[in-house]
Amino acid sequence: MKHDLRIIGYITFTIFILLWINQLFSGIKLYETVKTRWQIHMDSIIASIIPPYVEILQTDSVQEQTHLLSSLDSALHSKTPDAVHFTIARLDSTHQAIVKFQNYKTRTSDITRGKIYPINNPSHESLAIYYNFPISFFLERSWQDILTIVALTLLLVLGLQYLSHAQQHLSRLQEEMIKQVVHDWKTPLASIVTLSELVEKKSIPEDDEKGRAKIRLIQEEASRLKTSSQQLLKTLSGLAHLNINRDEFNLKNELLSLFEKQYLANHGQKNIQLNLRYLVESEIIYASHFYLLGALQNLLDNAVKYSGDMPQITVICYQKRGTFVIEIRDNGPGIPKKQQKYIFNKYYQANKNSTSKKGYGLGLNYVYNVIKAHKGKITVDSLLGKGCTFTIYLRKWKKK
């Protein structure tokens, strides 16, 4: 559900961004169009006013050019809005300004130059008029488009806030549900431990090693569940990141012990074949005993769970360029390629359409975080109908 909501959020965000960009480019194009129309309009006004002034400037009898240019400025202002600023310049033959006149502190480089009008005197001088493009003119003619851009921006922000709130609310509901489930485990687990101890004392003969082994398995698994549930609650509540404490232990022996637990737990239910190929010279590894074995047991549990009535699981340990590698292969149904990049996400369930095998979508996320806490990485390789291979890479596995 949360994954689907995230996809909907990404799609919605993309659509809004595309609409916003399209509207933004439309606004820029509209601005250029309105500005071009404004220039045409202004050039027509200037062309209707300037001829008499050009004729006067053609004679050599003009003594006060500034007064003439001021008069031209007043004539232009009488035909245009107050927001328009003019700069009038008399240019030489190289179009360099000889005389400038402006009533406003507007730099010539910040405004638009209109047409150049030749004075037709022996010096080949000309007259140029610069004017600005008032933003008010643009707003009056394009306020609807600007309002659309603003509305789309607000919708984008509000939509993202809503999706973020919905995801957070969904996460809280899921975590509250899991907390309640974990809390409900406590009493049954305590009862299991008490009853198993009672059975061991009252019902299992001293010489029944297999019976006592099964009872010990029950007690160990109940204890592990209790510890794991406490760690799960801490993780869900955000009170702890995985801070692992490393120590040295015999990984090969521990893997064989995990195999034995799988045989005992599935006795009479599944015909399990577990194979260990330990190809590393040293059997000692420097890692978190609790967390690493918990992650490996989780992967083995999944492999047994999804591999039918005759699971065939192989664990291979070897070195690759100084990195310790652990592969866990099974003969299960496999995971579709498009789902493989999501399987380590919190709450994601690759088998969510299955009616017989349900979970909370936390196991592989837990494994991923354990391996990440070890400064390692985990990958999955799978083809439909041909099982899965989970590969763990641990770069720091020896004590210095």
What are the salient characteristics of this protein?
400 residues; alpha+beta; 5-stranded mixed β-sheet; 4-stranded antiparallel β-sheet; 8 helices; 52% helix
If you had to describe this structure to a student in words, what would you say it looks like?
This protein has 400 residues and is an alpha+beta fold. It has helices spanning 2-49, 51-58, 65-77, 135-202, 209-236, 251-265, 289-305, 363-373, and strands at residues 86-91, 97-102, 112-118, 126-131, 247-250, 273-278, 284-287, 312-320, 323-329, 377-382, 388-394. The protein is built from eight helices and eleven strands. The protein is rod-shaped, with a radius of gyration of 40 Å. It is 52% helix and 17% strand. Strands 6-8-9-11-10 form a five-stranded mixed sheet, covered by helices on one side. It has a four-stranded antiparallel sheet with strand order 2-1-4-3, covered by helices on one side. The model has no long low-confidence stretch (mean pLDDT 79).
Could you provide a short overview of the structure?
This protein is α+β, with helices and mostly antiparallel strands and 400 residues long. The protein contains eight helices and eleven strands.
Q: Give helix % range.
A: 40-55%
- Structural class, from helix and strand content? alpha+beta
Number of helices: 8
Trace the largest sheet across and list its strands: 6-8-9-11-10
Rg (C-alpha, Å): 40 Å
Give the integer mean of the pLDDT values: 79
Return the string of H and E elements. HHHEEEEHHEHEEHEEHEE
Can you summarize the main beta sheet? 5 strands, mixed
Strand content: 15-25%
Number of strands: 11
